[in-house]
Amino acid sequence: MKVLHLNTSASVGGAAIAARRLVQSLQRLGVDATLLCRDVAPEAADAGVKALPPSLLHRLRFVAERAEIYVRNGFTREGLFAIDLGRFGQDVTKLPVFREADLIHLHWVNQAMLSLSDIRRILRSGKPVVWTMHDMWPFVGLCHHTADCERWKNGCGKCPLLRKPSPGDLSAQTYHRKEKAYGLSHFHLVGCSKWLADLAAEAPLLKHAEISSIPNPIDTDFYSPVENAEELKAQLGIPADKKVLLFTAFKVSDPKKGVDYLMEALTHLHEQHPDFTESLVLVLAGKGCEEVKDAFPVQTVPMGYVTEPERMRDLYRCADLLLMPSLMDNLPNTIVEAMACGVPCVGFRVGGITQMIDMDINGYLADYCDSLDLAKGILTTLNSPSYPAMSRNARSKSVSCYSEKTVAERYLALYRQLLKGSLENEVAKT
Length: 430
Known about the structure:
The protein is an alpha/beta fold. The chain contains 15 helices and 13 strands. The protein folds into two domains: 2-217 and 404-429, Glycogen Phosphorylase B (Rossmann fold, 3-Layer(aba) Sandwich); 230-402, Rossmann fold (3-Layer(aba) Sandwich). α7 (230-236) crosses α11 and α8 packs across α13 (371-383). The two termini are 23 Å apart.
């Protein structure tokens, strides 16, 4: 079985990490799986990763799409990377690696990796297609996360992300282009979380598609606890005599990652329980650490953007608690990785996070955007006599639900089902 996976990048972003892990997991099961990307950094190149043929056009297409968004949204940079048009991309159906594949598996293909016309060609190629949704873009007009907007249920338009929203604005136009691209094609969409799969099931754009939910995989042998983290803390410059809170994101200063609510929560704890906050240290990992490090009422250790998996694993192993106050999220790799290292997690009750954190079993789910409840979760979890059991439960859930073998076997079963159906359809036609 030959399966071609497509993702914009081989290393940048959660979708890239998840796609590479899945390809590697499938290869271990004997599947001939390949990941084709536009952007392949040297450290991401391996036997299962291929780059699109080098071309100046890749960069030009990316710039052209951003330029169109900039111009058509009233010459503003606001939200420039929060939306995608699917206007530009590369026709991969002519490549040998595509022609040789039995099945095509799409991941995050935005920012001029694939245009909607390219997706249409893939859907009409006659090959079974699986599309793992890492956000909402496949079934809405422009955006990757709709927040409270539900206009995607009725064709979009009046988009709150546009400077001059109107019934026939850019979101409505892109929505209708997706209708044409998808047409009557039958393909299978996978939500990384049940939350996202349930939303997709409501989407008029996907009325001809099948939808299921399969999580992203991680290497639970690599991400694992250590008996004593004192040596790691010394190497990383983390105080050994304090409880370690870890807050990590691609950009920790991004308001969507909940940094403002985290500041409020820790400020409340500092005011109400000063002795407790004196026993804490907050480790920040991600871009923008220097921007926010002085805004917290506890000692902070900024680590910057961490690219090495080994270093990120060591940060998890040093942590007593992962803080995940995201305002919107699908199925964050961060939570799964931390749990695999035996770290309980505290986050808001939103998106796919609700199926990952089990209240008072492996962490704490705070009411959405409630910084006081977030503070309560931090305090009660760290002070709970059940903390050792919560740590064990976190590890246990990660292994049972998100291990590479478990997830890869679910995808392999789906591939076999789709290939069998495709073969039966071909036989019926003859």
